[in-house]
Amino acid sequence: DWSDIWRPAIEDHEQNHDRGIRDILVSAIRDISQSLASDKPGHVPALLSKFESKKCTIFIRLALHLMRLFPQTSGEKIKEYLTDKKMFEGHELRHEYALLLKEQFKNLEAPSQLQILSWIEEGPDDLNDLIEYRKRETGVPSSVQEIERYKQSWQLKQLILINEFLPDEWKGKY
Questions:
Q1: Residue 71 in contact with residue 107, Cβ under 8 Å?
Q2: Could you tell me the pTM of the whole model?
Q3: Region 6-32 average pLDDT
């Protein structure tokens, strides 16, 4: 639905600039769901289920946002979302996923934390695309150093979100 383009952040944010009907509707759905969750926290699982049933990126982003604001009623869903590799890699979910990861990584059990860290260790999923793009655009293949620099930069962007809660062996890498 390209919502990450026309609505970069679910929360009120300076990058949100559309102000068209879609933007107004997203804000209304967000505000109503937050209000309902504040008044009746037990309704959060039902709201998340409703958002998930829509199978649209904007609704998954709304679910991630709601989980971040109401983690006490979303524990298993938080684990499910944060340990879903498609969500981890999903550029269209990145903003809300990153905010949730930043706040909830510390609450994940060690196996879940290690799963996320293993994805970071592997590096970006678009590395081959970048290599092909650079070769196509410049006519010159990327050097090993350029590839490694890109990978390390990407890893740093991931680790910076969770640096306070890294296991000891990862603090050195960070």
A1: yes
A2: 0.92
A3: 92
